[in-house]
Design brief:
With 611 residues, the chain is α/β, with parallel strands linked by helices. The protein has 20 helices and 27 strands. The strands form five sheets. The protein has an eight-stranded antiparallel sheet, with helices on one face. Strands 5-6-7-8-12-13-14 form a seven-stranded antiparallel sheet. The protein is globular and about 80 Å long. The two termini are 29 Å apart. The mean pLDDT is 93. Bound molecules: 2-deoxy-2-amino glucitol-6-phosphate. The site of 2-deoxy-2-amino glucitol-6-phosphate has 15 residues, from helix 10.
Length: 611
């Protein structure tokens, strides 16, 4: 996710900006830039790749000033290159903008401004903001008012920081989605995407809320709501150390990333789902109705957690496409002489985009003439470069080795792809609109689970943390969640855990059941709910300890199970995005209780780039 920093004060601003961007590097980026107002006006220096490339440019052409801003870009619209690196400017080069997030309606705004003569230099959505402010100022409107008016036109999610080089010293910072904080110092104020870069200057921090914006100069920071009314915002005293700040106060990256899932899922469907028209729109998928008409079968190739999301994807895509969908481990696929031709669509699923087994499977598919797309979280990763089309998951960098937000955003991507296929097939538009509405409220339902169940799950973790084995059971769309829950637990707590189809338990694993074996089951209301209940009765009959993830208000299950974890209702295709959350938290708190290294579990790597 992009990193933002803005400064108004008395210090030499370039070291402040570069030092601040370094504190934000963990967020991941593929280009960087700064804008400084010095004696000659606005100086902008940008570079592709790592911050060291930007520093090299600044060493070669030093710039001095006490006012400016900087940005590290995690590309969403437009390739990760220097030209698309922020900051972006208007036609005059004086209105300067940096941005984190997605401006959904940038295209119609851009087209309108182009008709008015504005010349755009980049492929980004961000650039429209600078030109829109410029256009608004043409009738004499002052910069801050023009920024206010511009904000009212924007749709989507954004953290925006802007200034007018003709009137340096004042920054406007606006939040609608991605985080933005204001640090209040002595004769200096500093704005950033999160707390980490501010701690070197102040611990008095104001967190902007959605819809709010701040007008900041060296001595003042004034806060406004979306009705442009002034609001009083008491600064918080931040006592974190720098390392904690990078985790935004969470104890581990994994826990931070579990809590980022509402934002990550929202960023994955934002700009792709349009209820009004009932349309799904993918920037980079390159899959037309003509392409789709040729497809007779689909192979999904992945590893680990991504393979589990592929299993859910099979349910969603088979229901939508009514053609055979196979799911393969990358390490198996390439050696099983798969039957592939130009009527086969192969979907590589990979968070890192660098997993050797998955890439090898994709190469095999390409060699045999398949159409190849990938669902990936890293712009420009190897898997994306070899594919005909890409669906990016926009989760932001996932630091914890145990995959969490990558998984739920992969499920989101598959859900959107299934709707897109329905669209290509001309399926009922009202059904698609309903499905989009249910997806749109999923982030709130994830927040609901995190708010209501985390403490309870932590207590369950303490209760069961000494167990030596776990069994996870699920049916239908929840069978992959049983597998994923078992993987999460085993990879960070080192407890042996198995995931199994609930209906398959009686064919062997039932021999494991006794009073020492916790059984985690997903029993939400799907067409096979009663079947799952019968399977769970077999567990209870043998004194197994039952922890059941069920619908809120399932009183019968509360009486029947030893422990329940309630989750909000949603439609069956979306249930896995919710039912996986308790399994992530259970694994985290058990591993924590057992003193394991949650973010860097033994023997594991975040991206397995060897076979
Ligand atoms: C999941 O928690 C693990 N980190 C691992 O199974 C991972 O999902 C697998 O290595 C695939 O990685 P990828 O998604 O980057 O291809």
């Amino acid at each position: 996710m992009c990193g933002i920093i803005g400064y108004a004060g008395t210090r030499d601003v370039v070291p402040v900006l570069i030092g601040g961007l370094k504190k934000l590097e963990y967020r991941g980026y593929d280009s960087a830039g700064i804008a400084v107002v010095d004696g000659n006006g606005v100086e902008v220096v940008r570079a592709e790749g790592k911050l060291s490339n930007l520093e090299a440019k600044l060493d070669a052409t030093p710039i001095k000033g006490t006012f400016g801003m900087g940005h590290t870009r995690w590309a969403t619209h437009g390739k990760p290159n220097e030209n698309n690196a922020h900051p972006h400017r208007d036609c005059t080069g004086k209105i300067v903008v940096i941005h984190n997030g997605i401006i959904e309606n940038f295209l119609p705004i851009k087209q309108r401004l182009q008709k008015l003569g504005h010349e755009f230099k980049t492929e980004t959505d961000t650039e429209v903001v600078a030109h829109l402010i410029e256009e608004t100022m043409k009738d004499g409107t002052k910069f801050v008012d023009a920024a206010r008016k511009t904000l009212k036109e924007l749709e989507g999610h954004y953290a925006l920081v802007m200034f007018d080089g003709n009137d340096p010293g004042t920054i406007v910072a606006a939040k609608q989605g991605p985080p933005l904080v204001v640090g209040l110092g002595e004769n200096e104020n500093i704005i950033a995407s999160d707390v980490a870069p501010l701690l070197a200057y102040t611990r008095n921090i104001v967190y902007l809320e959605d819809g709010e914006y701040a007008v900041v100069d060296q001595n003042n920071a004034t806060f406004y709501d979306q009705k442009d009314q002034k609001i009083e915002r008491e600064p918080k005293k931040i006592l974190w150390d720098a390392v904690m700040a990078e985790k935004e106060g969470y104890r581990h990256y994994m826990l931070k990333e579990i809590h980022e899932q509402p934002r990550a899922v929202r960023d994955t469907f934002t700009g792709r789902m349009f209820e009004e028209s009932g349309e799904i729109f993918f920037n980079d998928l390159q899959l037309t109705s003509g392409d789709w008409a040729k497809i007779k079968k689909v192979h999904i190739v992945a590893c680990g957690t991504s393979w589990h999301s592929g299993l859910v994807g099979k349910f969603l895509l088979e229901d939508a496409a009514r053609i055979p969908i196979e799911v393969d481990y990358g390490s198996e696929y390439r050696y099983r002489n798969p039957i592939i031709d130009d009527s086969t669509l192969v979907i590589g699923v990979t968070q890192s985009g660098e997993t050797a087994d998955t890439i090898a499977g994709m190469q095999e598919a390409k060699k045999r003439g398949a159409k190849l797309i990938t669902i990936c979280n890293v712009i420009g990763a190897a898997a994306t470069r070899m594919s005909d089309g890409v669906i990016y998951t926009n989760a932001g960098p996932e630091i914890g080795v145990a995959s969490t937000k990558a998984f739920t955003t992969q499920l989101t991507a598959f859900y959107l792809l299934a709707l897109y296929i329905r669209q290509l097939r001309g399926d009922d538009i009202d059904d698609r609109r309903y499905a989009m509405h249910e997806m749109r409220v999923i982030p709130h339902k994830i927040e609901d689970i995190l708010a209501k169940q985390e403490k309870h799950i932590e207590e369950l973790a303490h209760k069961y943390s000494k167990s030596q084995d776990f069994l996870f059971l699920g049916r239908g769309v929840h069978y992959p969640i049983a597998l994923e829950g078992a993987l999460k637990l085993k990879e960070i707590s080192y407890i042996h855990a198995e995931g199994y189809p609930a209906g398959e338990m009686k064919h062997g694993p039932i021999a494991l059941i006794d009073e020492n074996l916790p059984v985690v089951a997903i029993a939400t209301h799907t067409p096979v709910y009663d079947k799952v209940v019968s399977n769970l009765q077999e567990v209870k009959a043998r004194d197994g300890k039952l922890i059941v993830i069920c619908d809120e208000g399932d009183d019968a299950m509360k009486k029947f199970a030893d422990d329940v974890i309630e989750i909000p209702w949603t439609t069956e295709p979306l249930q896995p995005i919710l039912s996986v959350i308790p399994t992530q938290l259970l694994a985290y708190y058990i591993a924590l209780r057992r003193g394991c290294d949650v973010d860097q579990p033994r023997n594991l790597a975040k991206s397995v780039t060897v076979e």
